Amino acid sequence: MSLPRSLALLVVSLSAVLLFNSTGLSEVSGGLKKAPDFTLKSSTGRNVKLSELRGRVVLVNFWATWCTPCKEELPFFNTLYRRYQNLGLEILGVNIDKVSSHGAQMSAALGLSFPVLFDPAGKTSNVYQIRTMPTTFVVAKDGSLRHVHWGFGPAEPARYEAEIRALLKE
Question: What angle do CA 27, 33, 36 make, to 5 degrees?
Answer without folding.
Answer: 100
